[in-house]
Amino acid sequence: MNSQNVFPVFDPEMLATLVSCALQHVEDVESGVEDGTYSAAENEDLPRKRLAVDTFASMLAQEGAGVTAQRTLASVAGAALPGHVADQVAQAGELLIRAAASLGSLTASEQDLVSKSDGGLLAQGIATALGACKAISPAIAQSLQNHPPRGFIAP
C-alpha cells in the first residue's frame, strides 16, 4: 500500500508537508510533556500519534516524497535505550557515516550517475537511516556534528 492508493488525488509532496506538520506537532507535545508544559494524563495517546506519523512518514519517504522521519524511539517507549542497545545503534550509525563518506568521495557527477541508476534509493536510504540513528543516539548526533561525511549529496 502506498499514499497514492490511500489518497489517490493528493500530491505526495502535499502529503509530505502535512506529515511534517503533524510530526512537528507531536514533537512539540512530547517536549511539552517532558518539561511539564502539557499534562501527561491528557496526552496518553501520544505514543499512538507518534507511531501513526512515523509510519506514514516512512511510507512517503520510501516513495521519494522527501520526508525524513525523525524517529525518537526513546520518546515512544518513554525511556532511554539500554546501554548495549545504544552502543549497537551508535556502531550502526558510524558504519552509515562511513558509507555516506564513501559515496561522498565520488564527484557530484558520479553521485548523480549512481542516483540515476537506482532512483536515488541508495543515498536516500543512507540519509534516512542516519537521521534515525541521529534521532535516537546522542553519540551519532555528536559524531555527525564533529565529522559530517564530506561530499555526500543527500536527496
How is this structure best described in words?
The protein is mainly alpha-helical. The chain has eight helices and no strands. The chain has helices at 3-6, 12-35, 46-62, 73-77, 83-104, 108-118, 121-136, 138-146. Helix 2 (12-35) runs antiparallel to helix 3 and helix 7 crosses helix 8. It is globular and about 50 Å long. Residues 1-7 and 65-79 have low confidence and may be disordered.
What is the compact description of this entry?
Helix content is 70%, strand content 0%. By secondary structure, it is mainly alpha-helical.
List the helices and strands and how they pair.
Elements: H1 3-6, H2 12-35, H3 46-62, H4 73-77, H5 83-104, H6 108-118, H7 121-136, H8 138-146
Portion in helices = 55-70%
Order of helices and strands: HHHHHHHH
Apparent shape: globular
Total of DSSP H or I helical runs spanning 4+ residues:
8
| pLDDT < 50 stretches | 1-7, 65-79
Mean pLDDT: 77
Query: Which range does the strand content fall in?
Result: under 5%
Largest sheet: none
Rg over alpha carbons? 17 Å
Helix/strand-derived category reads: mainly alpha
Distance between the termini: 23 Å
Quantity of strands, as a count: 0
Task: Describe the structure using short key phrases.
8 helices, mainly alpha, 155 residues
